[in-house]
Amino acid sequence: MGRGPRFAGRGLLVVGSIALVLGGTELGLRWIGSDAPLLHFGTPEVYRADSDLIYSRRPGAPHTNSLGLRDFEVDTRPGTFRVIALGDSYTFGFNVPPDASYPALLERELREGGRVGGAVDVVNAGIPGYNVDQAYRLFEERLGGLDPDWVILVIEPKDLAGANVLYDLDGDELVRVGAYRNWIYWQLILRSHTPAWLKASKLYGFVLGKLSGSDLLRTLPPGGLDAQIEWQIAKIERIVDRLVARGREEGFRVLVVNYPDRPALRAGGDYTRSTYFELPVQILGPRGNEHMAELLAMLERSGAEVIDGMQVFLERSRQRGDLEALYLGADPHMSRFGNRTFARMLAPTLEATVGPRRR
């Protein structure tokens, strides 16, 4: 037998063996019912890879306005009292209708409170899965020209330990990091170009799900979880400083809010109990309370207005015993009632500054 037929036979054997292994793995995953969690913002019909933001919502997708934000178009009338609410799925209002998100309810509170004259527009700039890096880049790149009176930045434990890196530190300076250095960016590109039959396989979902949140491209600093959290806090400090400085120049104020993380709230404010969607993963590790205390102390020195939502919700739940009603069952996102409570917590701070704009 010639060398050509022998090589062809070996090649077919290798291909057949690979196909057998992959097929067996697929059948095994289907048999055990494996459903490794995929990104809830990973549907190419709604989300796209974005060279500035890692990913963003497609303008014109269901319930998305022309800026790629949730539902409502921005009210651009002159003299409008405008608030831009930056954040992730908690700001977006995941699993509640658009009019039940906290930005929509805050707009209603401000309009009905009587302190704000004329038009009021609270822009819901929350994108599921975003962290502080992405929220800040979204404002800087695409929303800064909306002429806000207030910018609200909501921070939660995931922001201190997650990936989605768009900024690094060079000494004390904040420096940009390209979106292409994040695995999620490439994951969305893969999902946009993968055939439907492959996306339907359990193996495809399992592999991508296991890689979600990984640091394949080495954007996080070495040294373990605590070192990464300290790095994130230092970055957030510079980001808030930049927002405050820009606000002083352009006439808007900055409000930073500590989101009342449900697992920590249920544990009496213990951040070592913070998890991600009830998965058995401690987001901040055993030093979680130290890290959050450091973050809050830094924010108090920043020049921004600060509301510790955790303490407000803790006090409320102790007085009224309605903690579970604030959230959607096992889902860590706020219910309609929780979003309304959150909006009413913020409204007095914004109303207290109503007056001639410092343009």
Attribute tags:
single chain; 359 residues; alpha/beta; Rossmann fold; 5-stranded parallel sheet; two-stranded antiparallel ribbon; 13 helices; globular
Highest-level CATH class of the domain at 47-164 and 220-350: Alpha Beta
The name of the CATH superfamily of the domain at 47-164 and 220-350 reads SGNH hydrolase
Query: How many strand segments?
Result: 11
Along the chain, the helix and strand elements come as HEEEHHEHEHEEHHHHEHHEHEEH
Number of alpha- plus pi-helical segments: 13
Largest sheet properties: 5 strands, parallel
Instruction: Report low-confidence residues grouped into runs of 5 or more.
Output: none
Q: In the CATH hierarchy, what is the architecture of the domain at 47-164 and 220-350 at level 2?
A: 3-Layer(aba) Sandwich
Order of strands in the sheet with most strands: 4-3-5-8-9
- Tell me the Rg in angstroms: 23 Å
Mean pLDDT across every amino acid position: 85
Terminal Cα separation, in Å? 87 Å
- Helix content class: 40-55%
CATH topology type of the domain at 47-164 and 220-350: Rossmann fold
Form type = globular
